[in-house]
Specification:
Layout (H helix, E strand, L loop, with lengths): L18 H15 L12 E6 L6 H14 L3 E6 L10 H12 L3 H8 L3 H4 L16 H19 L2 E6 L6 H10 L8 E7 L9 H9 L7 H4 L3 E3 L7 E2 L21 E2 L22 E2 L2
Parallel strand pairs: 1-4, 2-3, 3-4
Antiparallel strand pairs: 1-5, 5-6, 7-8
Helix pairs in contact: 1-2
Length: 287
């Protein structure tokens, strides 16, 4: 049975042409949850990022990731950036942690947070802002690291689902950027989605973090498909547009063969048959 509190999902919509993205989710969850032929092994998390412009199905993809994580018995915590909430410090972090903290009574909550209570209480919305001297921002970040680490150890395996991070407050993005590399040594998987062209200017560190765990920039102008970036230990790929067979009323099997080009415009090399139909190498159809 899955542990912890979970925000309710809004229902599952069918996912079309998302095999590679779902394989990425399954691979990350297997690394997080599976023991391997019954032999105990350390659970490994990481960062899985889906990027793309509006309307490409990132939110639906995260809903499917939630369902698959719950089916594996994971504790699922979620947060979503809000277009009108970017000025609210630690808004996304509060969405992640408040449901679990709210389920505790006051003595249990103070015992759980321990000596970090006075440092993180305001950031987590447990005390009104201004009720005490503002803590050092670095101390708050260190305290949130400890809170998330302890929660992960108690409720493992844990999956964090973060949607619309292009609208996240800068404090939450800053914390996530500093904490994410630690997930590879914890039973904690972070699955995030955002519109790359709408990240705020002060989110460069987060953008760089995601890029270091992927294959590079997605050619949105041509492919218009979400790209996922896996952490070290998971493979990375770019999903190309597979053609217009569906919109033309034909089955994918009936779609004509295409030639696939690399980002430089030349035939893609490194696949089984360069210059032929190559739906899995990360290139896109030549127009």
């Amino acid at each position: 049975m899955a542990n912890g509190l979970r925000q309710p999902s809004t229902g599952r919509r069918p996912l079309l042409e998302r095999r590679r993205e779902l394989e990425a989710v399954d691979e990350a969850l297997a690394r997080l949850c599976d023991t391997g032929d019954g032999v105990p092994r350390a659970r490994r998390g990481g960062l899985l990022v889906f990027t793309g412009s509006a309307g490409l199905g990132k939110t639906t993809l995260l809903a499917e990731a939630r369902a698959r994580a719950v089916a594996r018995g994971c504790t699922v915590l979620s947060g979503t950036g809000g277009e009108n909430e970017q000025e609210l410090a630690f808004r996304v972090v509060r969405q992640l942690l408040q449901p679990t903290l709210a389920a505790m009574d006051e003595p249990e909550r103070r015992a759980f947070l321990g000596s970090w209570y006075d440092i993180v209480a305001t950031a987590l919305g447990l005390e009104a802002a201004g009720a005490a001297r503002s803590p050092d921002p670095t101390g708050v970040r260190d305290g949130l690291d400890w809170v998330m680490t302890r929660l992960t150890v108690r409720r493992a395996p844990v999956v964090l689902l973060l949607d619309d991070l292009h609208w996240a407050d800068v404090e939450s993005l800053g914390w996530l950027t500093s904490f994410a590399p630690r997930t590879e040594d914890l039973p904690l998987l972070v699955v995030a989605a955002y519109r790359p062209d709408e990240l705020p200017p002060d989110a460069d560190a987060f953008r760089a973090l995601a890029a270091r765990r992927g294959t590079g920039r997605s050619p949105w102008g041509r492919s218009r498909r979400p790209v996922w970036h896996g952490s070290s230990g998971t493979r990375s790929a770019r999903r190309p547009r597979t053609g217009s067979a569906r919109s033309a009323g034909r089955s994918p099997a009936a779609a004509p063969s295409r030639r696939w080009n690399s980002p430089s415009g030349s035939p893609r090399t490194g696949c089984a048959a360069p210059g032929t139909n190559c739906p899995g190498c990360g290139a896109w159809p030549r127009r």
